[in-house]
Amino acid sequence: MTRVNRPFVIGVAGGTCSGKTTVAERLVDLVGTDRLALIRQDAYYIDRTHQAFDDRARANYDHPDAFDWDLMNQQLAALLAGQTIPLPVYDYADHNRSKDVVMVAPAPIVVFEGILALYDASLRDLFDLSVFVDTDPDVRLIRRLQRDVRDRGRTPDSIMNQYMTTVRPSHIQFIEPSKRYADVIIPEGGHNDRALDVLLARISSAIG
Question: Which domains does the chain have, with CATH numbers?
Fold first, then answer.
């Protein structure tokens, strides 16, 4: 694609349960699935088929080493070049990449959302707008507890242990520092209507 026809790409980063997914999904709702392709970074967790289930459950999923950066960059570049991509599907219950894929077609707007969306320089270079969703740690922890108990069948003790041993240290070391690469910082996530209005205005000015 020429630069004129290239999609407008937004990277949305932030800590666990910061509200970044809500931002991305609200953009989909406001813009429409016919004009916006949403890519979740979770799709690119590395394949752990060679590991036992208990080892997979103990892995640090907030560390950069948990992701397949080569595939991530290759597929996003292909999507921006006008190709349909086979996006991997991650199975949270099995702690592993599933055998399924979802075909994602090119669209005028591409939103790439994930905890480390702004971590990798090669990935950042593909973004036209970089966003960091900034939410207080105590709010994020409460949201994570509620989500993992409700949606993933986990116990509060296991969630807290994971948070203290891997999630919090990785946030401090890798995720929070990536905020300096953001063009826009959104407090409190997807319910910040004024911030969403700013993003929509930027999208409209970029694609007409």
Answer: 8-203 (3.40.50.300)
